[in-house]
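Appendix B, record 7
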Amino acid sequence: MVKHQTSADEGDAINTAERGRHSLDPANVRNAKNTVFELLSRAGVSRGDAEELISLVEAGAVADAHSEVEKAGGVPDGEGEPYGRGWHDGARSVGEELARVAERALDRAIGDGVEGSARGRDNVGRVDVERAKVAVSPLYLAFSEASALDPEVSDDVLAAVLGTMGVVGRVRYAGLLEQFTESHRQRLTRLYTRYGPRSRIAVHGRYSLLHSPSSIAVIERLVSAPSALRAEWEDAELPPAWLEGLTRAWQASEDPLD
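Structure tokens (predicted):
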């Protein structure tokens, strides 16, 4: 007589299966991507912009996997030297292939960095500016506070900043900004203490940009690419006094607080 599996047994079988390794087949991956495309489209993001963002996330995921492989544990205990050599050779091969996959994914997202991005252009676009805004805001708030006097030109300022670098530089700019703020933390603290929204300085047109998160990006470019920034600033017809004010404030911040 065949014994039928009870509901409890079936549940245990399902739970056991679900505790195993998980994977997504191509159809599920396509479905997830198309869902993201649809949601971004409703928010006004073009298909090309959405494809670039997703490709960047994919490239980052593979890069993270590469890092995890490099951090993987050593040879299991009790195995001999030949096994250990094979283990390390295999791990190195997997790591190298993951690095190549990550590089190809990044190429799909931004092109070769010379002829333009996946959208077929090398001009600063909406997604470039939005990524920069997301990057600068938390960095700015680490030194200052949100200000009602933030000039309504943040997009124009960030576009000028991003115009000083190529496609690859824009993609990596968030990481560069984090490195910059970390290495200049004390000086940036002095800068915003003296001239930012918390300072006692009367609001002055020269220092208006210090009320905007975009000021972090401008300062980084003043240090890293001043000539290129001034050229982009002039082309964008942004107020020269803002750049002059940031330059003076940055120079003054080199001295410790009184």
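Remarks on this record: Residues 128 and 170 are 7 Å apart (CA to CA). DSSP finds twelve helices and no strands in the chain.
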